[in-house]
């Protein structure tokens, strides 16, 4: 595995190194169990000092992605050890294509939490939040008429984020912010062939607007069916 020299001396150098290493792990270029080159080799490849490198490795390790052992070296940890909902780790995923396994796992995760958040949104959304959801839904309909993949990913992500924020639950609300990167990543994949599930989104929207929690739950659950996505 070859790393690219980082041509900068700016502050935050350790973050750039950490991002490079983390993205190689996330993309599968570095697999669980792989051992990174030695510190000397990595310093040469990145063109940085040991201090900057060690800080970078410490940062990636704090996300559960690496572990260092004497006489063994720095090893990539299995995926189930990663702090997958860590904000910085999600930022490192930005712009990357996920694996099919990750898409399925994210959909399963959504099936557990999003229908409940949607039910709560139907019951608890404020007038301002319903107005905002209406704006997003209207934009969603406009984008669907003249389908643009990039615009659809953006508006669909905002639609689901609005639902979490409208739930009125302080534990659900952060998902609307934290998962934005993963939503975009998932929606981009699942809508590549024009799959928008627009009618399912209509049903979710209508149920929230009339305050029907049960209908909102069922509509959200229906959207989470794997066969409706490009999986």
TrEMBL record:
UniProt keyword annotation of Transcription present: yes
InterPro entries: GntR_C, TF_FadR/GntR_C, Tscrpt_reg_HTH_GntR, WH-like_DNA-bd_sf, WH_DNA-bd_sf
Domain of life from the UniProt record: Bacteria
Keywords, alphabetical: DNA-binding, Transcription, Transcription regulation
Residue stretches making up the HTH gntR-type domain: 11-79
Cross-referenced Gene3D superfamilies: GntR ligand-binding domain-like, Winged helix-like DNA-binding domain superfamily/Winged helix DNA-binding domain
Regions annotated as coiled coil: none
GO-annotated molecular function: DNA binding; DNA-binding transcription factor activity
The name this protein goes by in its record: GntR family transcriptional regulator
Species of origin: Buttiauxella noackiae ATCC 51607
């Amino acid at each position: 595995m070859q790393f690219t020299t980082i041509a900068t001396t700016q502050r935050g150098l350790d973050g750039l190194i950490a991002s490079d290493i983390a993205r190689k792990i996330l993309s599968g270029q570095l697999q669980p169990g792989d051992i990174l080159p030695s510190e000397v080799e990595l310093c040469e490849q990145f063109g940085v000092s040991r201090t900057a490198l060690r800080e970078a490795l410490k940062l990636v390790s704090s996300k559960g992605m690496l572990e260092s052992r004497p006489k063994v070296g720095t090893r990539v940890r299995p995926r189930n050890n990663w702090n997958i909902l860590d904000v910085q780790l999600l930022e490192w995923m930005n712009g990357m294509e996920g694996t099919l396994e990750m898409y399925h796992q994210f959909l399963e995760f959504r099936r557990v939490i999003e229908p409940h958040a949607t039910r709560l949104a139907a019951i608890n959304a404020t007038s301002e939040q319903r107005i905002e959801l209406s704006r997003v839904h209207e934009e969603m309909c406009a984008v669907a008429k003249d389908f643009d993949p990039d615009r659809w990913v953006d508006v669909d992500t905002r639609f689901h984020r609005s639902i979490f924020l409208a739930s009125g639950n302080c534990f659900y609300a952060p998902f609307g912010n934290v998962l934005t990167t993963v939503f975009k990543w998932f929606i981009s994949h699942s809508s590549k062939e024009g799959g928008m599930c627009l009618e399912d989104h209509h049903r979710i929207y209508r149920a929230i607007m009339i305050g029907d929690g049960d209908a909102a739950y069922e509509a959200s659950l229906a959207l989470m069916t794997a066969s409706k996505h490009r999986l």
